[in-house]
Amino acid sequence: MIILDYRERKIIPLALEIDDVEIYNLPVGDILIPIDKETILIERKSSVDFIESIKNSRLWDQLARIHSAESVLDYKIKKRILLIHDPMLPAVLTARISWASIFGALQEIVYVYNIQVFHTETEHAFLEFLRILIKREIEGRNDGNPNIKWERKINYSMDDQSWKVYILSSIPYVGEKTAKLLLEKFGTIENISKASIQELKKIKGIGEEKAKLIHRLLH
Asked: 148 pLDDT exceeds 80?
């Protein structure tokens, strides 16, 4: 279910493409995405309205109320989002506002008010944003600790040669293939550490900068 403020009736057709819609007179925000007993609160602004609200300072009063609110319609607020809708550049040029003012405002919103900011330029982008947000929230993929996909898993049962390859491939820009070539040429890590930059450069895939790095780290 998606809950819209009554002033957001014009986006009902868009929201209905994703889920059922209910209309309320919301005390804060424009869109609610309820997930169980919690909700994502979204303040939606067109680019023109966003810029005007910066110039007349109305934005900060709205965001202060969103920042301080703990619940809405008996839902505990889980996340707070400012969604800027429509292309930004035409609005900036028309309003004759500096990009410094825009980025200063955006950084204050994120770092001071602790409100996340997203920008969708088209109706299709707006739909995709809502669809993905709801999907990820239901699946719990917007919570928890990062999954470090590049983290190397260590096999502690490796033989000595595999350990040597592992150690050498831990050097920046030296992959497993280059590590094996180094061991084939020099035999041991000790011999590699004694090799000169010119000797290291003879290995396929090792240029001047990489040779200097290996030489520096192993000496």
From this structure: no
